[in-house]
UniProtKB/TrEMBL annotation:
Keywords: Ribonucleoprotein, Ribosomal protein. Pfam families: Ribosomal_L29 (PF00831). Transmembrane segments: none annotated. GO terms for molecular function: structural constituent of ribosome. GO terms for cellular component: ribonucleoprotein complex; ribosome. GO terms for biological process: translation. InterPro entries: Ribosomal_uL29, Ribosomal_uL29_CS, Ribosomal_uL29_sf. The keyword Ribosomal protein applies. This is Large ribosomal subunit protein uL29. Belongs to the universal ribosomal protein uL29 family.
Length: 60
């Protein structure tokens, strides 16, 4: 996901995307603790997506 894709969305849609991403991060961390996560770099990518969404929200 890129910032240019996010800046065209409205605030309600960004908030729902943020909520989904935070839930995805929570489940990825749980999978990491139980050794079910095959690629630990997914957590880093999810955190970067959350930061991009937060940046788009703050820009609005």
């Amino acid at each position: 996901m890129k910032y240019t894709d996010l800046k065209d969305k409205d605030l309600a849609e960004l908030n729902s995307m943020l909520k989904q991403s935070k839930l995805l991060l929570f489940t990825a961390r749980q999978k990491l603790k139980t050794m079910q996560l095959s690629n630990p770099n997914e957590i880093r990518a999810i955190k970067k997506d959350i930061a991009r969404i937060n940046t788009a929200i703050k820009a609005k």
